[in-house]
Amino acid sequence: MSSLADRLAAASRDRVATTVSTDAMSTMSERRRPAEKKPDNDYGELKSKVHNTLLQQLGPKLYDAELTQGELEHMVKGALQEAMQAEDILLPTGERTRISQEISDDILGYGPIEPFLRDPDLTEVMVNGSDSIYIERAGRLLKVEGSFNDEAHLRRTIDKIVSRIGRRVDESSPMVDARLPDGSRVNAVIPPLAVDGSLLTIRKFSADPYTSADLVAFGTYSQRTADFLAACVRGRLNVIVSGSTGSGKTTTLNVLSSFIPPDERIVTIEDAAELQLHQDHVLRLESRPANIEGKGAVEIRDLVKNTLRMRPDRIVVGEVRDSSALDMLQAMNTGHDGSLCTVHSNGPRDTLSRIETMVLMAGMDLPIRAIREQVASAVDLIVHQARLKDGSRRITHVTEVERMEGDVITLQDVFIYDHSMGFDENGRTLGRLRATGLRPKLLDKLAHSNVHVDPMLFAMDGG
Q1: Cα angle, residue 344 at apex, residues 342 and 346 outer, rounded to 5°
Q2: DSSP letter (8 states) at residue 39
Q3: CB 396 within 8 A of CB 417
Q4: Average pLDDT value for residue range 50-65
C-alpha cells in the first residue's frame, strides 16, 4: 500500500497533466474555429484604407462631368473590387459585401443614410448629430442602427448634397435648404447654431408621384372630395392648401396640380424645387439665397413679381411664408385665376389670419379691412390637411371662402373630417371625410367656366 506522500504526488501529477491537456485542446480548438467577427474599429480601419486607395486610383475621374452616373458606378465598383482583393485579409462574404457597399455609398451616394434614401417606404430621414439617425415609416419615428464616422464625415455629406445645386453651408451661413436630384427636400443646420453637432433633415419624395387615386386609397380624402377638387382646379378657382409641418401639403398640392388642363402655361415657384408636374408646358423657378458677400438673393416675392410678366395661365407657389403673400393676392385679383399655393396654419380660419399677417410683413400701411377684402376676393377654397395621432395624413376641411360680412370673412365647410368614430384596437383612426350637405356658392363660378359638378357629391349620407 502506497504511502500518503506517494498518493499526494500522484494526484499532483494528474492535475498538471489535466491542465496541460486542457490547454492543448483549447489551442487546437482555436485553430479549427473559424475567424470570429472582427471588432468594428478594425473594420473601420480596413474601410478607411480601402477608401483612400480607391480615391488615389480614381482621383479626378470621380468629378468628370462627361461620365454618366452608370459609367461612374461601373468604374467605382470595378476599382473597389480590385482594392478589396489587394487587401490580403480573410473576411466572411457578408462582411466583404457590407464594407464594399458602405464605401460605394460614401463615394457615389450619401454615406450611412444612403440605404434609407433607397427605401421607398420611408418618408423622412433625420440625422441628429453624427451618431444618431432617425427615420419616419408609416407616420412613426424610429431610431435606426447606423452612424457617421464623426462630425467631419457628416459635414462632408452635407457639403456634397448642397454643392450639387449651387448652395453652400458654412459658419457664416450655417443653415441651408436644398434638394436631392429626385426632388427630396433637404434642410441642414451646422454649428454654431446646432449645439450638439450638425443636423440634417431629408423629406423624401417618391420618384413616381402620388396620384389622386393613391390619396383616396390612403384615406387622405374621399372620392367625392377628389371629384370636387378636380372640378375646382379645372374651373380656375384659387385654392390654398394649408396645414402643419409634415401634414402632406406639398403632396396634395402636387395632386391638385395634376388636374390642370395640359394646354395651359404653368409657372411654379419654390424655395427648393420639389413639385413634379407632368404637363408639357411647365416653367420651374427656384429662389436663391445671398452669396458669401450677402448679395444676389432672389426671394419668392421677386419671383412672383417676375412671373406676372411671363404670361402664365397658372401660378403655383410651393409655400407662401412671407411678404410674397401680398404679391400672390395681387396676382389672384388681377386675372390670374386658378392659382395654387400652400400656407402653414392650424385651420381654415387661421389660414386667413396668417395671410393677413404675412401681407403686413410687406411693410405696406394697409388697413386690416382692406387686406381682408383682398383675401375674400382672391381666395375661393381652403383645403386643410393634418397629420393625425396615428401618423396618417388626412384632409380635415374643404372650406369655401364666401364673402365679407362686416369686418369678418365668412367661411363655409363643404367637407369636414368626422372624428366621432374614434380609433381601432391598433390605434388607427376610423374617421373619414364627410360632406356637410351644404351646396357651395362657388358652383355658379364653376358653371361660368363650363365646369359642372354633380349635386350628389354634397349629399350628407357619405363622404
Answers
A1: 125
A2: P
A3: yes
A4: 61
**Residue of 274, 282, 226 lying closest to 254 (CA atoms):** 274
Between CA 266 and CA 277 the distance in angstroms is 9
Kind and range of the H or E element at 286?
strand 282-286
At 98 the pLDDT is: 67
Q: Which residues lie closer than 8 Å to 67 by C-beta, 6 or more apart? A: 61, 75
CA pair distance 12, 51, nearest whole angstrom:
57
pLDDT over 90 at 428, yes or no: no
Question: Residue 229 carries which side chain, given as an amino acid letter?
Answer: L
- In this structure, the strands spanning 266-270 and 185-189 are unpaired
Distance CA 317, CA 307 (A): 11
Q: Of the candidates 321, 323, 324, 369, which has an alpha carbon nearest to the alpha carbon of residue 343?
A: 321
For residues 102 and 239, what is the distance between their CA atoms, to the nearest angstrom?
45
Residue 3, pLDDT above cutoff 70: no
The pTM (predicted TM-score) of the whole model is 0.76
For 181, the 3-state DSSP assignment is coil
CB count, 10 Å around CB of 15?
10
Task: Write down the residue that cell numbers 419668392 correspond to.
Answer: 300
With beta carbons less than 8 A apart as the criterion, state whether 254 and 277 touch: yes
User: What distance lies between CA 253 and its chain's CA centroid?
Assistant: 14
Domains and CATH numbers, the chain: 40-109 (no CATH), 118-203 (3.30.450.370), 212-458 (3.40.50.300)
pLDDT in tens, 212-242: 999 999 999 999 999 999 999 999 999 999 9
CA-to-CA distance for 460 and 435, rounded, in angstroms? 5
* Chain segment 375-417, per-residue pLDDT in tens: 999 999 999 999 988 888 999 999 999 988 988 999 999 999 9
Backbone CA torsion sign across 289, 293, 294, 300: negative
Give which of 125, 148, 141, 130 is closest to 194, Cα–Cα: 130
Element (H, E) at 375: helix 368-378
* pLDDT tens string 97-143: 666 666 666 667 788 898 898 888 888 999 999 999 999 988 888 99
What confidence tier does 24 reach under pLDDT thresholds 50, 70, 90?
Answer: very low
Element (H, E) at 435: strand 432-435
Whole-angstrom distance between the N-terminal and C-terminal Cα of the chain?
A: 103
Cα 380 to Cα 312: distance, rounded to the nearest angstrom: 19
* pLDDT at res. 80: 65
